[in-house]
Amino acid sequence: MNFELSPQQQLMKKMFTEFAENEVKPVAAYIDEHEVFPVETVEKMVKCKMLGIPFSLDYKGAGADYISYILAVEALSKVCGTTGVILSAHTSLCAAPIHDFGTDFQKEKYLVPLCSGEKLGAFGLTEPNAGTDASQQQTTARLDGDNYIINGSKIFITNAGYADIYVIFAMTDKTVGTRGISAFILDSTMEGFSIGKKEAKLGIKASSTCELIFDNVVVPKENLLGQVGRGFKIAMNTLDGGRIGIAAQALGIAQGAIDETVAYTKARKQFGKPISAFQNTQFQLADMQTKVEAARLLVYQAAWLKQNKKPYTTQAAMAKLFASETAMEVTTKAIQLFGGYGYTRDYPVERMFRDAKITEIYEGTSEVQRMVISGSMLR
Amino acid sequence: MKIIVLVKQVPDTTEIQVDKKTGTLIRDGVKSIINPDDLAGLEEALCLKDKYGAHVSVLTMGPPQASSMLKECLARGCDEAILLTDMKFAGSDTWATSNALAAAIKKLDYDLIIAGRQAIDGDTAQVGPQTAERLNLPQITYVQEIVEVENDVLTVVKNWEDYLETLQVELPCLITTLATMNKPRYMNCADIWTAIEKDVKVIKFVDTDLKDSDVGLKSSPTNVKRTFTKDVSNANEILNIDAQSAAKRILADLVSKQLIVLGDNHENN
């Protein structure tokens, strides 16, 4: 057994940390307050080749490993949950399924610009009436000669509006349930494809979350991802990986809140001494860090399993469940230790608390994770 | 074009403190960084590589652990890393260090050598110029901007603090660079991944034409007599007077301390 990061992973982590401190942290509060998608930050990430970390150099990726990608999401999320999820949605939900299920043609046309960062990616599964019950897809894809004609809509789509490439799901055959769902690669420039309502959210406010509208979108047959009727499987498989990304985001947010709290409690004086000198503070911090460390082990373990091509569905669910609930708990405690100041926007823990909540919801709620975990136990 | 960048691993002096009893730096727990002026030099070399195509090598003299810094240089996109290391070099001052660096460089191919102006742990600004002298190369120090390279002529802007001077020099040459001249790029994911695997080329004393009398503590003419932290005293004088009298008073003080000199056309009103 080896719990050490490799020399490459350590250097990756160092770079991600420097990048996050210098480029992401200074704008985190501003982009949250003004709900602006951090286009410039993404451009800087492209220069550091961060948009295709786990993919081969052949696809213009970084040729690094999955754990390094997870370290990137963690480091970014430590200072800004929004920036973390932009990378996670792009890599795990768009580039990954094209890498895993795409044809050579699709990889050349879509995966390469995604990995190089020339284009940004997104994923569209959720619909107004198909949330946790993703099988109830109402978006349809009808074969018409050499094209599919797609009609319907998606909601809560991360990176929508800023992404160029979308992996989306639609019913090709309504009579066979989930076996009638197929996956497609859409280009934002396709006629009939438009962006609908932008959501106003509690947290990750600078992340763009919008509706996708498909009005007779003509999609060439060659953009079918995987086989006809295999879409649901592709979606579930993709979300297994995505969950490790979101778990890393939650882990980052939680560690970020602890780091802020440690600094604050050492500086803040009450009753003539820093509040870090009080045992309540010390015990709270100890509990917070212990939970985060446990979450980190689960997240890295899930990433390691995926990296080494071992089954990871259950571990990914556990990692996401535990890391996201830990993030919620830790950010709540962080605000409590900050007291009144923690409730204000003068300190980042208020933002981290709001950002933490979504990690218990998207890419499978905590309840879904419990279903996945118990399902594997009670088979 | 072949470029050699001289780099030094230094303690991050924004975090460092001096042991008041011994007068030495407390290095424990202080992270090491690439000297900022050197990092700017590396960035310039990489920009030249982007613009004209170049082979960029980094060269450092230091203990074996300096190779971690060299890997970071590789992870930023440079092509080759060279570590000049030997117990015989221990204790070298700037004189001995430039002897060693020049001896190593003599074994290498180059068109341009870039060194940082000075290292933040010593602030001598001597190693770059001395190395150029040993190699009998033209040198331009305090370079703020590299304008272009054309027909083996390098055009740079030198910063004289109160004015700028554009200079041209024929290659091969040595320049020293200022940390303020650019914002160094980050390491990038692809190069990090391969940097660790790349070998750092090691040059030992025996690989050079150096003699024992050229390097090391004994061959270093510099003797550090004492290192100490300056005590800053704030001798304040508070005067409750009107603005015009205050201005006159300050002017008189500055003149008497010879901090400023009044010009001929100054009217004393």
Describe the structure.
- The complex is a heterodimer of chains A (379) and B (269).
- Chain A is an alpha+beta fold and 379 residues long.
- Helices cover 53% and strands 16% of the residues of chain A.
- Chain A has helices at 7-34, 39-47, 66-79, 81-101, 104-116, 231-267, 279-307, 313-338, 349-358, 366-377; strands at 121-124, 140-144, 147-158, 165-171, 181-187, 193-198, 209-220, 224-225, 269-270, 273-274.
- In chain A, the strands form 3 sheets. A 4-stranded mixed β-sheet of chain A has the order 1-4-5-8. Chain A has a 4-stranded antiparallel β-sheet with strand order 2-3-7-6, with helices on one face.
- The model of chain A has no long low-confidence stretch (mean pLDDT 97).
- By secondary structure, chain B is α/β, with parallel strands linked by helices.
- Chain B has one domain (2-214): HUPs (Rossmann fold).
- Helix content of chain B is 25%, strand content 25%.
- In chain B, helix 3 crosses helix 4 (127-134).
- Chain B is globular and about 70 Å long.
- The chains are: A alpha+beta (379), B alpha/beta (269).
- The interface between A and B is medium-sized, with 21 and 15 residues.
How would you concisely characterize the structure shown here?
Chain A is built from 10 helices and 10 strands.
Describe how the helices and strands are arranged:
The complex is a heterodimer of chains A (379) and B (269).
Chain A (H helix, E strand, L loop, with lengths): L6 H28 L4 H9 L18 H14 L1 H21 L2 H13 L4 E4 L15 E5 L2 E12 L6 E7 L9 E7 L5 E6 L10 E12 L3 E2 L5 H37 L1 E2 L2 E2 L4 H29 L5 H26 L10 H10 L7 H12 L2
Parallel strand pairs in A: 1-4
Antiparallel strand pairs in A: 2-3, 3-7, 4-5, 5-8, 6-7, 9-10
Chain B lengths: L1 E5 L2 E3 L5 E2 L6 E2 L5 E3 L1 H17 L2 E7 L5 H9 L4 E5 L9 H12 L6 E5 L10 H8 L4 E12 L2 E7 L4 E7 L2 E5 L11 H7 L5 E3 L39 H14 L13
Parallel strand pairs in B: 1-6, 1-8, 6-7, 7-13, 8-12, 9-12
Antiparallel strand pairs in B: 2-5, 3-4, 9-10, 10-11
